Amino acid sequence: MILHIEKSIDAGKLQKLADKYEAIILKTEDRFILITPSALKITEEADKELIHESFVFDTDIQLASRKYLKEKRSIKIGENSIGGQFRNVLMAIGPCSVESEEQITQAAEYIKKAGLRTLRAGCFKPRTSPYTFQGMGIDGLKLLDKIRQQYGFTIITEVRDSSHVEDVIAYADIIQIGAKSMYDHGILRKCAKTTKPVLLKRGFGTTLQEFVQAAEFILSGGNPNVILCERGIRTFETKTRFTLDLCGVAYLKENTNLPIILDPSHAMGYAYGVPDLARACMAMDIEGLLIEVHPNPKVALSDASQQLNHEQFSQLFDTLKPIAQAVNRTII
Ligand code: PEP
Ligand code: MN
Predict the structure, then answer these.
(1) CA atoms of 264 and 177, how far apart (whole Å)
(2) Residues 93, 139: Cα–Cα separation, whole Å
(3) Average pLDDT value for the chain
(4) Among 3, 9, 16, 111, which residue has the least CB neighbours within 10 Å?
(5) Beta pairing partners, 82
(6) pLDDT at 253 (0 to 100)
(7) Which residues contact 159 (CB under 8 A, 6 or more apart)?
């Protein structure tokens, strides 16, 4: 259950109530919110005078549920916002990894030329082999910071493990939690303590329930700014890298109040399929797209096969614009 409690409640009474119902206490500007396990369906009669409003749920998808907030949460991204009443769709593009100052500057120049303002690039890469490029680490974050200052972009960059989570939180405008880190409670809990937006990627072996419950860790810890990212799940199919779960996206849209960004690049794994998938994603009427774009994908140090070059992205971008219009969204 979620219980809304007036701000004026006595601290001792609040704690007693939380203890009795095994609830997490969330303090917001307007009220205290107690979040109990969803198995609780009713509170004691005597407590009702302390409870201003209550919500009952079938599962532990609670703060993220549409049953709790009917309207999608809105999240401020730079000067714009996504979700809520805003009909914006965020176009977050950039290379898989920051590789050098020259490479990331070329990427930034292209983004500026395309009329966009968001750069995504990773510095701590969660690679599947220890013998491949692991990312530039803190030096990469410093390069992204330089780009932010020079271009005024919003920077999305990922946290891989808890050893550098504070650095990423300090440098990123949007903190990306990668698919392989989605279950890392050290990361989830630290990202709950900031109010910077978090882009939470779905683990590739994760059910929708588990995915949204990971978001609940961040929400219930105090950060309301969570964006869900579907990036492909593992199925029996091996011809493509992963399988983009658009049915799952329909479920998330219907049942959760969180903005959604789709990542066709990691799902497909091959550049040839990314444009068609990106158009399908845009048609899903969601809050953003994340597409890997590299100045020269052939020499990319990670995810080379799936990145579009600038010309390929320009062609795709032209075809995404009418689809955005058809679903009544403005590309930001
Ligand atoms: C990435 O965005 O470059 C990345 C590593 O993504 P994922 O965590 O979805 O594999
Ligand atoms: Mn990548």
Answers:
(1) 17
(2) 20
(3) 97
(4) 16
(5) 75
(6) 98
(7) 124, 165, 168, 169, 172, 175, 176, 177, 178, 181, 187, 191
Q: For residue range 73-96, what is the model confidence (pLDDT) as tens digits? A: 999 998 999 999 999 999 999 999
For the segment 95-114, the average pLDDT, to the nearest whole number, is: 98
C-alpha 179 to ligand 1 mean position (Å): 6
Q: Which residues surround ligand 2, an ion (CB under 5 A)?
A: 96, 303
pTM for this prediction: 0.97
N residues, the chain: 332
Q: What three-state secondary structure class fits 237?
A: coil
Q: Which residues line ligand 1 (CB under 6 A)?
A: 96, 122, 126, 178-180, 201, 231, 266
Ligand closest in space to the Cα of 290: 1
Atom of ligand 1 nearest to the CA of 302: 3
- 318 CA to centre of ligand 2 in angstroms: 23
**Which of 99, 155, 266 best tests ligand 1's pocket when mutated (most atoms within 8 Å of CB)?**
266
What local confidence, expressed as pLDDT, does residue 332 receive?
98
**Angstrom distance (rounded) from CA 17 to CA 123:** 44
Residue 180 alpha carbon, nearest atom of ligand 1: 8
What's residue 130's pLDDT? Answer: 94
